[in-house]
Amino acid sequence: MSTELLTRPAPSTSIFVPELVYFEPDALLYPKGKQIYAWAQQEGLEIHMTTSHNQIRDLPGESDLDKYRIAKRTLVVGLRKTLKFETSKPSAEYAIPIATGCMGHCHYCYLQTTMGAKPYIRVYVNIDDILDAAKRYIEEREPEITRFEAACTSDPVGLEHISGSLKQIIEFMGQQEHGRLRFVTKYHHVEPLLDAKHNKHTRFRFSVNADYVIKNFEPGTSRFHERIEAAGKVAKAGYPLGFIIAPIIWHDGWEEGYRTLLEKLHHTLPPKATQDLTFEMIQHRFTKTAKNIIEKRYPKTKLEMDEEKRKYKWGKYGKGKYVYKDEQATALREFITEQIFEKFPQAKIEYFT
Ligand code: SF4
């Protein structure tokens, strides 16, 4: 290999640009809708109109798989009509809806099931309505603090260059005495958010994992080194920082994988980033429905989804999921917790689930 190849920096994960863009007519009455329309024109994207963001039926593609891939590169710009927020335990009280869908191709992603046959990406332009609703939720719980999670149905950082919504919500929460925001991302395109007036009311989290997991199951997302570099910038900008290790996957060499992950974090994070740091840990789980969908969409996946090897955990409305058996879950939790405390003694572990 030539020296040039060895010294050349790893290519950067490119920012998302959709292939198709659909607009609901009403979206164009809002400044954000107009701004996205102008951007799509400037980028030379194929633009269509649609009666409703729930009604996109004419996506190109011969097979279901083709349609799925194209849907992941399709942006739909519309209005958020439902302003009733879902709950978002354990990370926050409510999910704040600013986008639905994601361009990433993480095999295990729960959007596979929650978005069903509509995996295209929707962004909402009526941000003032969404913020008004958030304000009402905050007032209902005063003087308690109300936390909102902005990444329940999407990866909003990866869409920020298109919508600008995250910055608006960050700045809104910055002014709320009793409101807090949090979100998680696998993308490193954080520049537009670095100068936001966050007032430390937003916890910026990055999703990280052992190399094996990132390499095998997270195509289409930023690489580990890019996420960590971005985490350093975010910490420098004064945001409280967090990491979500999820999904934690039992694989050959998992101890080494997760030890190395924590070591790399420890070596690369600037000291400032470690002052107010949180960790959340989520073990891999799947439902029967998810397994069927994942096997169709990623037929060669190495994701282990053998019900026999798992424990069935009953959930709400009789819908359960498969998690690791107790002894494996305990081993994962204890080992990773130890690694976190060894490297980041001041960090707070918020939960393992
Ligand atoms: Fe799903 Fe997050 Fe991956 Fe997007 S980046 S596909 S939201 S897990």
Automatic annotation (TrEMBL):
GO CC terms for this protein?
Answer: endospore-forming forespore
Q: Which cofactor does it need?
A: [4Fe-4S] cluster; S-adenosyl-L-methionine
Which reactions appear under catalytic activity for this entry? (5R)-5,6-dihydro-5-(thymidin-7-yl)thymidine in DNA = a thymidine dimer in DNA
Give the InterPro entries listed for this entry. Answer: rSAM, SPL, SPL_Bacilli, SPL_firmicutes
EC nos: 4.1.99.14
Q: Does the keyword S-adenosyl-L-methionine apply?
A: yes
Q: Which EC class is this protein assigned? A: lyase
Q: Name one GO biological process term.
A: sporulation resulting in formation of a cellular spore
Supply the Gene3D superfamilies for this chain. Answer: 3.40.50.12110, 3.80.30.30
> What are this entry's molecular-function GO terms?
4 iron, 4 sulfur cluster binding; DNA binding; DNA photolyase activity; metal ion binding; S-adenosyl-L-methionine binding
* Coiled-coil stretches noted in the UniProt entry, renumbered to this chain: none
Provide the alphabetized UniProt keywords.
4Fe-4S, DNA damage, DNA repair, DNA-binding, Iron, Iron-sulfur, Lyase, Metal-binding, S-adenosyl-L-methionine, Sporulation
Q: Note the PANTHER family from the entry.
A: SPORE PHOTOPRODUCT LYASE (PTHR37822:SF2), SPORE PHOTOPRODUCT LYASE-RELATED (PTHR37822)
Q: How does it assemble?
A: Monomer or homodimer.
Protein family (similarity comment): Belongs to the radical SAM superfamily. SPL family.
Query: What task does this protein carry out?
Result: Involved in repair of UV radiation-induced DNA damage during spore germination. Can repair thymine dimer 5-thyminyl-5,6-dihydrothymine (known as spore photoproduct (SP)) by in situ monomerization of SP to two thymines.
Q: What is this protein called?
A: Spore photoproduct lyase
Give the species this sequence originates from: Paenibacillus roseopurpureus
- What is this protein's gene name? splB
